[in-house]
UniProtKB/TrEMBL annotation:
This is DUF1326 domain-containing protein. It comes from the Bacteria. Pfam families: DUF1326 (PF07040).
Length: 205
């Protein structure tokens, strides 16, 4: 099967500024681990004949050490407005069953926490925000760059985009029992597919 999706995401995690996970460094959150959540808004996408356009989902993580060490805990929340077929398609993609970048990530999963359904909101602006009803809500504030621009990370070993804004995203999350207080944040446009361009960094979604 072939799949693709594109849109925008905004994330929050427990690491201090700046999160070292994208460069395979040791997490700087409490207990030297990283707990976080990234909420994605799919502007356009599909798995074969299943249209994923307009669906929001959250990807919750627990990284016990640097990313390449593996042992991740991962859980997914799909917006309750999505059809059952859309939720099933996303589960297959994010679990790594359909190939592509999430199959690379899946090799590092230590425990798959499953898929839940809840109301998810996503607001795209200069300071994007997201929430999963009853579990987490946060707003991303980018770190200022030169001449009023924003600070970005580019060509990192791990990431949801080849270049992403970094900043602050205070949050208090209880998703999947992976409770954390968010400090660091990031946001970018994303584009994933079962067949990624030649030369894409290993592990990058």
């Amino acid at each position: 099967m072939s799949w693709e999706m594109s849109g925008k995401y905004v994330a929050s995690c427990s690491c201090s500024l700046i999160c070292p996970c994208p460069v395979d460094g040791e997490p700087t959150g409490p207990n030297r681990e990283c707990r976080g959540v990234a909420v994605f808004h799919i502007e356009g996408g599909k798995l074969d004949d299943t249209d994923l356009s307009g669906v929001d989902f959250a990807f919750a993580n627990w990284f016990p050490s640097n990313l390449s060490a593996g042992g991740w805990k991962v859980g997914v929340v799909v917006d309750q407005g999505a059809a059952d077929g859309q939720a099933t398609a996303l589960e297959r993609i994010l679990h790594g069953d359909e190939g592509g970048p999430f199959a690379d990530f899946a090799a590092l999963y230590g425990e798959w926490l499953g898929v839940q359904r809840a109301s998810i909101s996503f607001s795209d602006s200069d300071t994007p925000s997201a929430s999963v009803e009853g579990s987490v809500s946060y707003t991303f504030e980018p770190l200022p760059g030169i001449d009023g621009g924003v600070t970005t990370v580019k060509n990192a070993m791990y990431g949801f985009a080849p270049e992403f804004m970094i900043g602050k995203a205070p949050a208090s999350s209880t998703l999947f029992g992976l409770d954390f207080e968010g400090v660091y944040g990031e946001s970018a446009d994303f584009s994933f597919a079962s067949e990624m361009p030649e030369g894409a960094a290993k592990g990058r979604a």
